[in-house]
Amino acid sequence: MAVYRGPVAPAPDRPTRGSVMVIAVVYFVIATSAVVSLARSLDRQMEGPRLRAAWAGRTAEARCTEVRMEETQDADGVPVTQSHPTLEFRTESGRTVAFEERRRRLDVTEGDFVTVYYAEDAPGDATAQAPTFGVRRAREVLAGSGCAFALVTAAILAEVL
Question: Other CB atoms closer than 10 Å to residue 114's CB: what's the count?
Answer without folding.
Answer: 18
